[in-house]
Design a protein that fits this description.
The protein is an alpha/beta fold and about 240 residues long. It has seven helices and ten strands. Helices cover about 30% and strands about 15% of the residues. The strands form two sheets. Strands 1-10-9-6-2-3-5 form a seven-stranded parallel beta sheet, with helices on one face. It binds 2-amino-2-deoxy-6-O-phosphono-alpha-D-glucopyranose (GLP).
């Protein structure tokens, strides 16, 4: 793992934009795996700025997102498809037809998981996958478990994840209990991985991800088995390494 530590959350966004921007410049029709959550926001702001400044061109870029809540679609402002449109896609010159997320409104779990795996496959796999990390070590919505997931699956969210994500909803009860998520196996198939974390609250789990044993109890620890991972941390997130 290549570990980069920066001073601030803003700098985290600009260093991550350097890495992702380099991918877009090297391969203009690359497949980017994208993530939601608070952590990528400074990165997305910087990608938007560079696009508007004419430095980055997204016209041929394809994207696949990690996950989506079951039961939520574009009409819900808590859905991840809505998040991606408002925080990135509507502000850059990407073709919306080239953006993909699991469809939270498809209640046929088997069909939706198979469809999403086929989408990733049809794009030729992921060139660079962006990840955040949950406080319990989850990546995408792959929660701590007894085994690693491989393909897209439908998960029951842990209570701690529901509570952590309740800040985006009116009340914790409104947080969906299930989500579709790309599997850990699919994430590991990405040719490059960029994982970002911010704040002291993530310091313990960041240390476990990097220095702890590889275990499905800490899904992010699986990244130790990948040959091309860049970790960008601000001072707080790096404080226990
Ligand atoms: C959610 C997402 C993850 C994300 C995590 C951390 O649960 N499914 O992909 O990494 O939250 O979010 P944050 O960046 O807000 O801490």
């Amino acid at each position: 793992m290549k570990i980069i530590t920066v001073d601030s959350y803003e700098e985290l966004g600009s260093r991550a934009a350097d890495v992702m921007g380099a991918q877009v410049i090297m391969k203009p029709n690359c497949v980017l795996g994208l993530a939601t959550g608070s952590t990528p926001l400074s990165l997305y702001q910087e990608l938007i700025r560079r696009n508007k400044a004419g430095i980055l061109d997204f016209s041929r870029v394809r994207t696949v997102n990690l996950d989506e809540y079951v039961g939520l679609g574009i009409e819900s402002d808590q859905s991840y498809v809505y998040f991606m449109r408002k925080n990135l896609f509507e502000h850059i010159n990407i073709d919306m037809n080239n953006t993909h997320l699991p469809n939270g409104l498809n209640s046929d779990v088997y069909a939706e998981c198979a469809r999403y795996d086929a989408v990733i496959e049809s794009l030729g796999g992921i060139d660079m996958q962006l990840l955040g990390i949950g406080h319990n070590g989850h990546i995408a919505f792959n929660e701590p478990a007894d085994s690693f997931t491989v393909n897209t699956n439908c998960v029951d969210l842990q209570q701690s994840t529901i509570e952590a994500n309740a800040r985006f909803f009116a009340k914790a009860d409104d947080v969906p209990k299930k989500a579709y998520t790309m599997g850990v196996g699919a994430i590991l198939k990405a040719r490059r991985i960029l994982i970002i974390a911010s704040g002291e609250g993530k310091a313990d789990i960041v240390r476990e991800m990097i220095k702890g044993p590889v275990t499905p109890k800490v899904p992010a620890s699986a990244l130790q088995m990948h040959r091309n991972v860049t970790v960008i941390l601000d001072k707080g997130a790096a404080s226990k390494l």
